[in-house]
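Title: Prediction job returns without error message
Component: structure pipeline
Severity: low
Priority: P3
Assignee: unassigned

Description:
Job completed but the reporter wants confirmation the result is attached to the right record. Sequence as submitted:
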Amino acid sequence: MVKQFWNRWKREYDYKTYMTAGGSLAATILYALYNGFLGISHASLWYGTICVYYILLTILRGAIIIAAKRIHLRQPPESARDRASLLISFLLLILNISLIVPVSIMVKQQKPVNMTLIPAIAMAAYTTCKIVMASVNLRKRRVSSDSLVWLLRTISFIDALVSILTLQNTLIMVNSHGENMKMFQLTAVTSAVVWIAILLLSAVAIVKGIRRVKSEKPDNSGR
């Protein structure tokens, strides 16, 4: 059983993606709860909104995994996958637009308390690992023709970019003391760049989804 699982893991990229996505759900939920704990303990609206964002992002990931399992039994599955991917891509864009709320809070430097260096170090290590892994997997997704696999890898990379915002906010809470115009300008620029990149990734996912769905119409009409 273990050998069969390992052989399939090595051979089938789509299978590997769905399995790792299922495992990452637990990690994302724990990360969301950690941010929720910080939000409650420090009375921080920033961490509260990030907690809600990660919970909703986890729900979208779960929806993709469930959809993939159900669609696998349909004929043809490609058409159903493309439509499900397009729908979830629109939901992802709406969710990422809502990131303007925590981004605005961070830019305004509305922080209730100074944090110690330990959370910043832990956040930096976690963010670095996520960025490296998500970047590698984003490039590897080219080997798959499954639109839901593509969307899962896109969501993972977006997840990593949001972690950059979280790390930035943590560093601000550790190092910022009082009003600092240079810090305000730097935060505004970096936050805007990350947020725009996230929106672009969401928009590209929608465009690809629309193209996939449209490309099916000639085939379906000819049947």
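Comment from assignee: result matches the submitted record. The chain has one domain: 2-215.
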